[in-house]
Amino acid sequence: VDTPGIKLTDQMDVGNLGSEKRHHYRTTGETKIITGNYWYDGELNNVLFKHPAISDNGRSVRGSSEFVVKIDQANEGVRLRCRTDKENNRQLAKVYVDGKLITERPWYTVDYEKTFRGIRWYDTSFEIPAKYTAGKKKIRVKLDHVSSENGSIDQYYFWVYSYLPTAQQEQKR
């Protein structure tokens, strides 16, 4: 494909008070600040090749978190991507957009192999169907913790992608 079918429309750095304020981030239930200094799995994991760890602050949320993000008004759905810690296996959350529960599926972060040598970062994605996002410039997302290995959802960083309309992609060719 000559033109992208998806574009980054927003980013939120959880644990960064300025970013949280801009995105109207709030939580309910027990919440604590967490810090990770880890690697992603792959070539630059400090095992095969020496590479500095990625340091990030985030939040561990036992209740729910809510935030507002920008999306492309002409979107055909949205992808949320979240940096999380592999040590907290089986994170399960209900996802709401503008107060409506996404009924197609919850956000489930699958089981991971045992972590070692600080290789703990993992990016997990959730697809929001267009029927929840069509025609909107922004959405309020709520993640309601259901279960996980340590009893909370770990959130460090969110990337928000909007799927571009097929017609828009065709026009750019």
What descriptors fit this protein?
173 residues; mainly beta; 6-stranded antiparallel beta sheet; disordered C terminus
| Sequence stretches where pLDDT stays below 50 over 5 or more residues | 167-173
Report the major sheet: 7 strands, mixed
What is the ordering of alpha helices and beta strands? Answer: EHEEEEEEEEEEEEH
Tell me roughly what share of residues is in helical segments.
under 10%
Oligomer: single chain
Structural class: mainly beta
Averaging pLDDT over every residue, what do you get?
90
Rg over CA atoms:
17 Å
Q: How is this structure best described in words?
A:
Residues 167-173 have low confidence and may be disordered. The chain has helices spanning 17-22, 166-172; strands at residues 6-13, 26-28, 31-40, 54-61, 64-70, 78-85, 91-97, 100-101, 107-109, 119-128, 138-147, 153-155, 157-163. It is built from 2 helices and 13 strands; from the N terminus they run E-H-E-E-E-E-E-E-E-E-E-E-E-E-H. The chain is globular. It is mainly beta and 173 residues long. A hairpin with a 2-residue loop joins strand 7 and strand 8 (100-101). The chain has a 7-stranded mixed beta sheet with strand order 1-13-6-10-3-4-12. Helices cover 8% and strands 50% of the residues. The relative contact order is 0.30.
